[in-house]
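Working notes for the structural subgroup meeting. M.R. asked for a predicted model of this chain before we commit to crystallization trials. I am recording the input and output together here so anyone reviewing the notebook later can reproduce the run.

Input as submitted:
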Amino acid sequence: MALAAQPLHDTVATQVRDLIYAGTLAGGELLDEKALCEQLAVSRTPLREALKLLVSEGLLRHEPRRGCFVETITDRDLDDIFPVIALLEGRAAYEATKKISSADRAVLDVMHEQLSQYAQAGDIAGYYRMNYQIHEAFITLADNRWLAQAIADLRRILRLARLQQLRAPGRLQASLQEHLALYAVMLSGDADAAEQTMRDHLLQQRKALLRMTPLSLSRIAL
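Returned structure, recorded in token form:
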């Protein structure tokens, strides 16, 4: 049986979301719907449906009679979100530790080796991609759809800022050591320790962002 095609507005939402994460559409920017329609080769109807979806995700803000603006993430947002995401991903690490298999370990070994290579090369973009995939792998291993959904909702917002923290002095290597320590604890089978280690790892990300000056943040392309 043929798979159903993805609705056009979902495809457009993915394209606009990618523009936001890439920094092409900057925080606080008013979207030019006409220009976006031309750029994405779509009509106003699927674009507006896509924008409604992104508003519901928290990536855009709609203002009556003005239009849609790219949402900005504030210090207050980060202070509120990081403790929550730390709790959620900590629980995911707890559940994943109890379910990890030898086959899972073979895959995760390779992923952590690649993570180390990106860190040694100073490749922040490559490190971020692999870091994201490892977190996703832990969430998948946890096999809790409600937990996964809650984490995904918050990660969409945090993705606006999480890459920035890897540019803080010394953060890339510190992040790597935290990941390797977490993985070692998971392999030991200590679920409680894995939960706490993951929480600490996420909270260190917030501290790294706090160490960055407003000027350095403004120069970063997400």
